[in-house]
Amino acid sequence: xxxxxxxxxxxxxxxxxxxxDILVPAEAQMDAEDRMPDAxxxxxxxxxxxxxxxxxxxxxxxxxxxEEAGLMLVLGRTAPAYRAVYALxxxxxxxxxxxxGTEAQRARWLPGLARGDLIACFCLSEAEAGSDxxxxxxxxxxxxDGWRLTGRKRWVTNAPEAGMLxxxxxxxGAGARGISAFAIDPNTPGVSVQxxxxxxxxxxxxVADIVFEDVAVPADALVGAEGDGLKLALAGLDxxxxxxxxxxxxxxxxxIDEGRRHALARRQxxxxxxxxxxxxxxxxxxxxxxxxxxxxxxxxARARDDGTLRPADAAAAKLFATEALGRVADRVLQVHGGEGxxxxxxxxxxxxxxxxxxxxxxxxxIQRMVVARGxxx
Length: 377
Ligand SMILES: Cc1cc2nc3c(=O)[nH]c(=O)nc-3n(C[C@H](O)[C@H](O)[C@H](O)COP(=O)(O)OP(=O)(O)OC[C@H]3O[C@@H](n4cnc5c(N)ncnc54)[C@H](O)[C@@H]3O)c2cc1C
Fold this sequence. Notes:
Butyryl-Coa Dehydrogenase, subunit A, domain 1; Butyryl-CoA Dehydrogenase, subunit A, domain 2; Butyryl-CoA Dehydrogenase, subunit A, domain 3; FAD; branched-chain amino acid catabolism; acyl-CoA dehydrogenase activity; flavoprotein
């Protein structure tokens, strides 16, 4: 649903300028330093992107899913590490607060997240709980009115700059029903951020482990009912998956531009590569897949807005778009030949970056399971 076509058109025009004038020129620096340049961060804040779907009442843009998907098609045309920093603020943590938080919890966290003053971290995965999130072992045990948290969360995006933590911890027995959600201040004694391995891409969106050592957590940090944590975390996945499908379509379009530019400029055998039918066919396949992902993302975003989205369809869109993105990145690197393999080219960077999208927020295999369950029961 587009609430105001003129406002959406203005948003897209502003986003195109942001991508071309600020974000793309800063990509190489961000990759080299593994840190988002200050000017880029300031521009993302000025455009309100930390508050994409946080309601306007809490200082966000309050975008519908169709508006957000349209915007991500544009914002996808640059390094996805930017998105990993700003979009997580309106992602899992904010969605849980919006779905189940009290007025006081929303008032405490959402305005800071929407402005980008606070950075949200979503703390679900652990060493023994990846795809099987229900196996997590971090525990929260009752202590008077409040709780004591102990455990280690692995590979938490944005952990080094965390301003709020949405932590899934076990408050009851084994399995999904024993897990609760807590909104925690990372400055609480006993919380520490610990370095982890280097990533192959997505540099600029830093990842670290977060350790909880007998951390005293007040009663009002529990979000939603005890035992509802994993249900709440999973309830936001349709939205994330459509967001990633749109992002992937935007990334494909960027890669196609890179491939087109190179194919027209590079001459071999006395003519531009673009005149070799094999090269033209590689790029044509990319165009078809990017278009399919774009259409899926927009169509399903409208379905989510009108309440008819099926979870299996959101999973299918994420599966198709991220897998197609992998194929497109591979073909476009091939079109670049050796230059595409050399460190420092945009294609080399994007090739490393986009690989993560087939792993995050449910790997492709997990999406296939969801799609198959929708079909077969
Ligand atoms: C850079 C990065 C950032 C991350 N950021 C966060 C974050 O901010 N917060 C957070 O909580 N987590 C985060 N994660 C963790 C991420 O969510 C997990 O990596 C992901 O869920 C997959 O889990 P895993 O890596 O343990 O793989 P595993 O679950 O061990 O899976 C390994 C392989 O087996 C396959 N597989 C597993 N189970 C099945 C099955 N039943 N059927 C078929 N195939 C199966 C998987 O598809 C995969 O190919 C991050 C990870 C990375 C790499």
